[in-house]
Amino acid sequence: MLFDLVTRLFSPYQFNPFNYNPLRQVLTETVDFGALRSGHCPVKLFLSATNVRTGKIKVFQNDEIGPDAVLASACLPLMFQAVEIDGEHYWDGGYMGNPAIFPLIYGCDSRDVVIIHINPLERAKLPTTASEIMNRINEISFNPSLMREMRAIAFVTKLIDDGKILDNSMKRMLIHGIEAADVMAELGTLNKLNADWDNLNHLMKVGRERADAWLKQNFGRLGKESTVDIREEYL
């Protein structure tokens, strides 16, 4: 709570003037960025960040990804100094693409997109404390970009279903979602700052359980149909 309060009173340029970020060393020691940037890498990876100057989204692809791109994609402006890359400064990509779906549409062959929800789209309980209100504001502010892209996908899907697009110029996307809203909604508003090992293991355990359950129920539908109702879920 004390650290959260400090971030409300002082900017990261004040309480962390030397711009120390322990995640940089972890990334450098554990991730083979050379293999990721290699033209032979079998995995396509897209990381989005928000350009502080222009407010536009920047999508880093394999050949551009290094520690700075990862840090930029997760740079919360009240906690970290903006990350500078090639003369531009970036904050968390969630403000403009959370996640960005369009690189998967135009840069990949697969029609299936599986969205892993870490923020609840809905909350039944009205936030009343200052921390609860701020947490809900953050959740809402990070969701509109996803809503906009889902609206565009729903629009194109309807055009295809209505027979108004016949030349295969648009690709029908199949949308899927894995979530644990019941668990995430019950977590305290400061849980995102909790790096306790038991807490991290608990979240990983929940994620694995929900992913396994989703795969058992929906694996056979991949490549055939969406497993979420886009209009009901996102619009």
What does this structure look like?
With 235 residues, the protein is of the alpha+beta class. It contains 11 helices and 6 strands. It has helices at residues 2-9, 12-15, 22-30, 33-37, 67-73, 102-107, 130-142, 144-161, 181-184, 197-218, 230-234, and strands spanning 47-51, 57-60, 83-85, 88-92, 112-116, 174-178. A hairpin with a 5-residue loop joins β1 and β2 (57-60). α3 (22-30) packs across α5.
Elements, N to C (H/E): HHHHEEHEEHEHHEHHH
Mean pLDDT: 91
Helix/strand class = alpha+beta
Low-confidence runs: none
Distance between the termini: 35 Å
The radius of gyration is 19 Å
Largest sheet: 4 strands, antiparallel
Estimate the helix proportion, in percent: 40-55%
Q: Can you count the helices?
A: 11
Question: What multimeric state do the chains show?
Answer: single chain
* Strand arrangement across the biggest beta sheet: 2-1-4-3
What global shape is seen? globular
Q: Give the beta-strand count.
A: 6
Q: What percent strand?
A: 5-15%
Could you list some keywords that capture this structure?
single chain, 235 residues, alpha+beta, two-stranded parallel sheet, 11 helices, 6 strands, 11% strand
Secondary-structure map:
Elements: H1 2-9, H2 12-15, H3 22-30, H4 33-37, E1 47-51, E2 57-60, H5 67-73, E3 83-85, E4 88-92, H6 102-107, E5 112-116, H7 130-142, H8 144-161, E6 174-178, H9 181-184, H10 197-218, H11 230-234
Parallel strand pairs: 5-6
Antiparallel strand pairs: 1-2, 1-4, 3-4
